[in-house]
Amino acid sequence: MFKKILIANRGEIACRVMATARKMGIQTVAVYSEADKEARHVAMANEAVCIGPSSSRESYLVADKIIAAAKETGAEAIHPGYGFLSENAEFSKRCEESGIVFIGPKHHSIAAMGDKIASKKLAAKAGVNCIPGVNDAIETPEKAVEIAKSIGYPVMIKASAGGGGKGLRVAYNDKEALEGFTSCRNEARNSFGDDRVFIEKFVEEPRHIEIQLIGDSQGHVLYLNERECSIQRRHQKVIEEAPSPFISDSTRKAMGEQAVALAKAVKYQSAGTVEFVVGKDQSFYFLEMNTRLQVEHPVTECITGLDLVEWMIRIAAGEPLTLKQEDVQRNGWAIECRINAEDPFRNFLPSTGRLVRFHPPEPTMFQGNTEQLFGVRVDTGVQEGGEIPMFYDSMIAKLIVHGHDRNDAIAKMREALNAFVIRGISSNIPFQSALLAHPRFVSGEFNTGFIAEQYAHGFRAEDVTHQDPDFLIALAAFVRRRSRERAAGLSGQLPGYDVKVGQAYTIITLDAKGDHHHTQVEVDDSMGRHGTAIIKVNGKNYAIASESRINDVAIQGTVNGQPFTAQVERGSVKNPLGLKLQHNGTRIDAMVISPRMAELYKLMPFKAPPDLSRFVLSPMPGLLVDVAVKPGQKVLAGERVAVIEAMKMENVLFALQDGVVKSVVATQGESLTVDQVIVEFEA
Predict the structure, then answer these.
(1) pLDDT digits 0-9 by tens, 382-422
(2) In this structure, are residues 41 and 381 in contact, taking their beta carbons and an 8 Å threshold?
(3) Of 100, 403, 422, 578, which has fewest CB within 10 angstroms of its CB?
(4) What is the pTM of this model?
(5) Among this protein's residues, is 288 annotated catalytic?
């Protein structure tokens, strides 16, 4: 077995690999860019080597620097994690030529499956179901339209070297095929340096289901059940689960056997995944093979009880598999939510900056430990006070739960999301909560188009409907009451000016339209126990009990005997009496004041916000890579104005209305802050 390995990655996956290595008694070496010098994975490793500037093109993607770091530290093997160089056949080959073991498949297997056109031909030869289409590279937009028409719309236009949702478009007519081909080609050239594009039939109402494989150097390959990955936004996975709530045992077996046949055809060894698109009639077709560890591998670890990273290391060291196909378990139900640094209420724009607070729910399952199951696990590479840089992808953590069945897993995940505290940046936790509560998700009746269909106009606060909105009102009153009780008990107060606790409050909330709503509540503390009260709201009683401290953001307790976890932030410079409450994805801003103060509040003048319609503002921190307009130019609504790059994604800004450009304020190549002016239009 290896004595020391280097992890050629960053963030949560680097920490994940280190956890298993530590369990196995293996020393670890981290590599890091200048942006990551204070990162968690650096502190967690036994040794760390800086490999260059913040940009991944100058650090994590430079094979020479990583191999040099391995030689310098005496690492015998390199684990690539996922992303970066994990599916780079040349890197795998270079490692072998340098006398360093690559903890992953051999370079010939990566090369065979890394090209989407070649992999489909290999899959068909191995007897794997393939989608109708043309697998040869298409040269012109006109040829793309001709082929699309011959296959029959809708079709999927895909970059041969694509991945992660890049270089992919769905076309329903000639116009979309023409434009989609050009966009895919440009995106593929910029992202992967390979502009080959092919076309295949788009399966309607598709499910994205993948089979986890593990193979050793002796030719044994097993399939470790499936993962359901159909909850996607713009082809990026959001929620994954194992097993799938859709496929039958016979379909699972057929998919697994075909995946194994493909793996054997390319002499695959290590962990890998074969992805399928599955129609509503359970017909399934090969999509691609990922020759690496998947982001969502923890859900498979939960239901099988296998440590996939450990098996990758053992296989790379030459050890054979010690289990057979009939030994593979399918125990309980696991769900994973990707926690991303993005603002779901601003069209999921990337959010960078410092993690002022980062308190995940208390874990009961841990990386590298498959003995403790049926609980909560948090895989992350960040820590409180750390920086979320703009140079890498937006995922900051993975939240995994393991339940006895699907309903149990959903309930565990909703409660875990309630307890996940992130401040300083925006996160997609409210969106995840909304998805988990959606009737279609709960029923399992969804496909890859679910998010696009349900949130066609974006995600808004009103899309998160609480099953009992008065509970949040009651909780606001409870929190304010406890704060007043503490203030009233402070010594040194002047007679006649002491703090009055009060039993009647008015809760003022703001709805999506900007209107204020006043709700009268009464607090009855006759229960006689500290931290308990009965809150009366709209004719309903909420008996709330909580021992959480007044300044805790995540508070736990019971309401009418049922446990809850909610988040509360108290006051701000602008509104010291305000409370921000969050539960099951629903957020409210509330002000808890006396009835008399509420009457006076209604008389306060309204200050209209400034008119910003003449400006194009940067919606996020990022790099301004292109300005498509110039002073004096007439611009129509919907025209491209600028392009901002953040977290490896390009974000195009469009004109919201017709106008004439007065000035271009920002310059190409400039690093922008949130709401920085880019373009000003004439009044």
Answers:
(1) 999 988 888 888 899 999 999 999 999 999 999 999 999 99
(2) yes
(3) 578
(4) 0.83
(5) yes
